[in-house]
Amino acid sequence: MLIPKGALVVSCQARADNPLHGPVHMAAMARAAEQGGARGIRANGADDIAAIRAVSALPIIGIAKVWTDRFPVYITPGFAQAAEIAGAGADIIGLDATPRPRDGEPVEILIGRIRSELGREVFADIATLEEGRAAHAAGTTYVATTLAGYTEGTASRKAGGPDLDLLSALVAELPLPIVAEGRFDTPDLVAEAFRRGAHAVVVGTAVTNPREITKKFVQAAP
Ligand SMILES: CC(=O)N[C@H](C=O)[C@@H](O)[C@H](O)[C@H](O)COP(=O)(O)O
């Protein structure tokens, strides 16, 4: 199942230190997002993905985050993780498509295997135009700005909101659906992403992380 053009996708993720961690809460988040009009869900890990699949027919971008001290890549580093989340019900496999060291096959091989062996679409999280080009050449279905501001070379871009310049550059050059993701935390920014030609926009923290949302309001308190 593909992400429709013009879709707002909601990322339903909560790490282990978050009180909302776990499939029960993430499935409820996904249902709430769907009732609010989301037309896709992004979710992490087989347990959350299976729980969301059980309550929603929306397209799911599944990822599997694996943190280690040895490799910078943590979003679906290898084929084993991709196969697990495909089995849990992900329609689309999200992965880190930067050329950084990873605990798995080179990303262009991984993209090909996901398409041919798992029969799933691929959602390439990138941080630069060059990485977008490479992901396109490797056969990804989508390219997304997810990692802009979160890699060594792009860290300086994190402070100024979402990387709208990267979004525009990708849209101008690449003939595939470009998804805006990362720090799109207001409806105005979502509208701006669509004006710039985004196929879809993924919003996470601003919708599904009450702890971070609360912090913003607390900052406004005396
Ligand atoms: C960099 C990284 O690991 N991003 C993650 C990817 O899955 C998530 O932590 C983000 O919440 C997601 O991309 C949505 O972005 P935002 O929460 O800013 O709307």
UniProtKB/TrEMBL annotation:
InterPro entries: Aldolase_TIM, NanE, RibuloseP-bd_barrel. It catalyses: an N-acyl-D-glucosamine 6-phosphate = an N-acyl-D-mannosamine 6-phosphate. It is an enzyme of class 5 (isomerase). Keywords: Carbohydrate metabolism, Isomerase. CDD domains: NanE. Its EC number is 5.1.3.9. Pathway: Amino-sugar metabolism; N-acetylneuraminate degradation; D-fructose 6-phosphate from N-acetylneuraminate: step 3/5. One of its GO terms (molecular function) is N-acylglucosamine-6-phosphate 2-epimerase activity. Converts N-acetylmannosamine-6-phosphate (ManNAc-6-P) to N-acetylglucosamine-6-phosphate (GlcNAc-6-P). Belongs to the NanE family. HAMAP family: ManNAc6P_epimer (MF_01235). This is Putative N-acetylmannosamine-6-phosphate 2-epimerase. It comes from Microvirga arabica.
